[in-house]
Amino acid sequence: MNFGFGTRKNPMPLPFREDRPRWKQVHGTSVVEITAPAQECGEVDALWTRLNDYPIGIVTADCVPLLLARQDGAAVAAIHSGWRGTEARILEAFFQALPPELSNPRDWTVRIGPAIHACCYEVSEELIARFETTFREISRSVIEPAPRKLDLIAVNQAICEKIGLPIESVHADCTLCAKESDGAFRYFSYRRGDRQSRQYSMIFS
Fold it and tell me: Do 153 and 170 form a contact (C-beta atoms < 8 A)?
C-alpha cells in the first residue's frame, strides 16, 4: 500500500497521474467510487477505488484526512472530514455507501493524517453543544478536552472504535502550529490564513 500526507513544502506527497479524477470538496457526506481514469466526480468528500496503481486523494488545510485501505488490498479510500463532515458522520456514510461485500469496517484499516488539534481549535460553545448532542456516545471530555477546544482527531478516533475500524496510525502534527526545524510552519492552515492553498493526502494500491 502506498500513501502519503502532504506538507507546505511538499503539498503532493505522491505523483498524480495525468488522468487523475476530478472532484470538488464541499464538506458533505457524498461518496463516489472511481471506476475509470479521468472520472468527473462532481461534489464529493469521500473517494474510493478498486483500480490498481491509481492514486486518489483529498485536500485539506486543517480538516481531518482519512486514508483507508482494505486489508486484502481490494480497495482504497480517501475521506475529507472537517467539522461539518465529522458531525454528519461521513465515515459511517462511507461504509453505508459501499457494496455489501466491502462494507465491513473490520476488513479495512485507517490512517488519520495531520489536522488541526485541540490545542489550537477554539470554536463556539454552540458548536461544542452540537457535537455533544450528535455524539452522545462519546465522552464530553473527549469532544472538549479544554473549554471551547474541539478535538476532531479524538472524535474521529472514537467513531472508528465504535464501528470497529482498525486504526493503523494517527499523525501527531497539528496543521496550525507544527513547525519545521527552521521555524517555518509545516502545513497550510485555513485558520492561520491559508485560504487558497492546500496539501494532499493520497493513497493507492
Answer: yes
Domain limits at 27? 2-204
DSSP string over 190-203: TTTT-SS--EEEEE
The pTM of the full predicted model, rounded to 2 decimals, is 0.97
Closest CA to 114 of 19, 11, 17: 11
Instruction: Answer yes or no: are the C-beta atoms of 24 and 43 closer than 8 Å.
Output: yes
Report the DSSP pairing between strands 31-34 and 46-49: parallel
- Kindly report, residue by residue over 117-157, the tens digit of the pLDDT: 999 999 999 999 999 999 999 999 999 999 999 999 999 99
Q: What is the CA radius of gyration of the chain?
A: 16
Number of structural domains found in the chain: 1
**What are the tens digits of pLDDT across the range 67-111?**
999 999 999 999 999 999 999 999 999 999 999 999 999 999 999
CATH of the domain at 159: 3.60.140.10
